[in-house]
Amino acid sequence: MRAIRTAAVVALSAGLVAGVAGCSQRASDDRQPGTVSVVASTDVWGSVASAVTGDHATVKSIVNSAADDPHSFEATPADAAAISDASLVVYNGGGYDHWVDDVLSGHPGGTTVNAYSLLPDTIAQPANEHVFYDPAIAKAVAVQIADRLAQSDAAHADAYRANAAEFGKRADEILQIERAIGQAHPGTSVVATEPVAHYLLVNAGIADKTPEGFTSAVEEDADPAPADLAAMLDLISTHQVSAVLFNPQTQTAVTKQIQDAAQRASIPVVTVTETLPNGTDYLGWQRQTAQQLASQLDKASPTNR
Q1: Which end of the chain is more exposed for a tag (fewer CB within 10 A), N or C?
Q2: How buried is residue 148: exposed, middle or buried, by Cβ count under 10 Å (0-12/13-18/19+)?
Q3: How far is CA 232 from CA 89, 148, 191, in A?
Q4: Helix, strand, coil percentages in the chain from 3-state DSSP, rounded to 5
């Protein structure tokens, strides 16, 4: 399902090999070198780390392009060296960025923050791995980053913790926006080309009607069965859902077919991505996504469920 991005991933890997001495484009280009170094698996977690570190540490994100898919990324030797040498490694976990686990398994004892591990015990396992779409998890990650860095850089401990607290306040504001969506649109349901925004929908109280077989196939990088695709298209053409969530980073002929079906049925299409759009940070990205969902649902036909 993600073959369309293979060339982009290879190109990114080659670029990382050539430019290993550089920092990630959005997380660290303009930072002053510090004694503390943070390496994040993606620019999403790099942005969270940057919000906590301020100017007191360098932050490098391995995957930092909206054209890339973190699922299928493969770390280069330069990436592995950066991860193993970092003061702190921040990554998603849950198999999402498995290549970080691969590197860490050969370098035990490093200081890490695993976002997936911060899911509440009340959530059944295995859970959806896209935990970065939950502002509450991002808030918990910020707190852990601050605590880890306070131990290795006590001189800036207060700054790290103050920055994490401020990040948490803004994350809570986004969570309130998400909850308000469900309150404004009770009984709303959607379908998604990939369950990237699972936690956004959960927080908003919006049902995901995507056929289970369709979702499972996408998660396994396989084409959905004809019956599952037909069921997905039927939900759209008969206006049983209010919106389609579309991930352009995993676009295929099948997802394009779904997008086209939504347009024919005048069903709003909400774009969700796995890495930061250009010019945004984590908080801005999540706020914009939630506001886009709210706006599109406001436009949805009242006959849609």
Answers
A1: C
A2: buried
A3: 39, 45, 8
A4: 55, 10, 35
At 220, is the secondary structure helix, strand, or coil?
coil
What domains, with CATH codes, occur in the chain?
3-176 (3.40.50.1980), 182-294 (3.40.50.1980)
Q: How many CB atoms lie within 10 A of CB 266?
A: 11
What is the spatial distance between Cα 133 and Cα 220, in angstroms, rounded to a whole number? 20
Give the Å distances, CA to CA, from 149 to 4, 35, 124, 140. 39, 11, 31, 14
Of 244 and 5, which is predicted with more confidence? Answer: 244
How is residue 282 written in tokens? 């984590």
Closest CA to 22 of 63, 66, 60: 60
Q: H or E stretch including 62?
A: strand 58-63
Calpha distance 297→185 (Å, rounded): 8
Q: How far apart are CA 56 and CA 69, in angstroms?
A: 30
Q: What b/e sequence results for 291-301 when a residue is b if at least 16 CB atoms lie within 10 Å of its CB, and e otherwise?
A: eebbebbeebe
**pLDDT band, residue 93 (cuts 50/70/90):** very high
pTM as predicted: 0.86
Residue 283 vs residues 166, 249, 267: alpha-carbon distances, Å: 11, 20, 27
Encoding tokens for residue 2? 């993600």
pLDDT over threshold 50, residue 7: no
Give tens-digit pLDDT for 242-287.
999 999 887 889 999 999 999 999 999 999 999 998 899 999 999 9
